[in-house]
Amino acid sequence: xxxxxxxxxxxxxxxxxxxxxxxxxxxxxxxxxxxxxxxxxxxxxxxxxxxxxxxxxxxxxxxxxxxxxxxxxxxxxxxxxxxxxxxxxxxxxxxxxxxxxxxxxxxxxxxxxxxxxxxxxxxxxxxxxxxxxxxxxxxxxxxxxxxxxxxxxxxxxxxxxxxxxxxxxxxxxxxxxxxxxxxxxxxxxxxxxxx
Length: 195
Fold this sequence. Notes:
The chain is built from 7 helices and 7 strands, in the order E-H-E-E-H-H-H-H-E-E-H-E-H-E. The chain is an alpha+beta fold. Strands 6-5-4-7 form a 4-stranded mixed beta sheet.
């Protein structure tokens, strides 16, 4: 655990923008687990410690598990894809946390953004489709989300080897998407959407 006293850095951590630091609910507001410093501890030593639960409920445990998955299990998108998608990622980051922004409401209405490449991520020609997953109840109407995604995704200039699918994005709730949609796509690094 490490203490982070600076408010600016605390804000970035809480928004999920520093993926190697994650909160431990019962450790306090400014204490974070540093996932860069993971090590083994012998059982004999652990048996001498007094157990202290890190979380009060399942929600905190799930967030911590998601942070571990993000740090150690994040899919490595191709560099040229990452570079092209940067304009979209930066738009999402810059607007998401602005409470008065209508565009911010759109991104706060999404719980996950996933990317699918057909045939696959190593093919010579990859057709990209984005999965934008929203909760059952949203801050804004689907039509508003669709309009923003059309605008934002239209700014992506794909390099050779990439092109948009038809449609270029699928918007829906978890109930709307199929298991194939989830299994065939990779989660983008937008974990702050759920904050």
